Amino acid sequence: MGKAPLRTMARLVGAPVRALVRRSPRLTAALWDTQYALGFWGYLDDTGGGEVPLSLIETWAPNPTILDLGCGTSANLPLAEGRHRHYHGVDISRRAIEAARSLDRPYASFEVADIRTYDTTRRFDAILLREVIYYLSVPEATRLLRRLPGLLTDRGRILVQIYDVQRSRQFVEVIRECALDVATRLPTDSDGGAAGAFFVLTPAAAPKP
Ligand SMILES: C[S@@+](CC[C@H](N)C(=O)[O-])C[C@H]1O[C@@H](n2cnc3c(N)ncnc32)[C@H](O)[C@@H]1O
């Protein structure tokens, strides 16, 4: 069979398989665990892009508490003592969280959970979603972004990082559905940007009477 029919078949089979996997937290976890076991995401640990989100957070919350949803191993975040009050990483992959714990990061805790249903009584100055939003369906991403403001402190903001700047344009449509304001967007449409696109989101301001 030629490449084009194979690609078409992969597309046809791929969409329902992805939808099925997404519906089951167990299958989603198994899929990510397998990818980590095969070393698919090892290259992320060596990327230097983690400085940008931490510097951005410091502009609105020095010494912040941070919730990192879909944290992976967290190895690419330069978490240094004295820079943050507490960092909590959440990921559906047990393997990623084991690797994260083995790094012995300062003032950090980790938890295995599905961010689509994750909840906590704690409140955070920054909630990170770094290269994870696209692994959720649009309704799932919308539901998550609608409830995250409830986990923020008064000064808290949500920071979404999307490594592929082209795909970030689609994300603007999702934000529109979520009663969130874009406080900062990097890079702007005219910039490049090695670490991808960043959106700093705040709960939408109440309309003036
Ligand atoms: C591309 S990796 C990004 C990891 C890390 N945020 C980074 O930027 O280096 C996506 C991560 O999202 C996690 N993930 C995907 N779907 C998830 C879900 N529903 N709940 C929690 N974590 C999820 C995966 O296990 C994986 O670690």
TrEMBL record:
The record, for CDD domains, names:
AdoMet_MTases
Q: Report TM segments.
A: none
Q: Which positions fall inside the Methyltransferase domain?
A: 64-164
Q: Where is the signal peptide?
A: none
Query: Highest taxon of the source?
Result: Bacteria
Q: Which InterPro entries match?
A: Methyltranfer_dom, SAM-dependent_MTases_sf
Read off the SUPFAM superfamilies from this record. S-adenosyl-L-methionine-dependent methyltransferases (SSF53335)
Q: Which Pfam families match?
A: Methyltransf_31
Q: What is this protein called?
A: Methyltransferase domain-containing protein
Q: Specify the species.
A: Micromonospora andamanensis
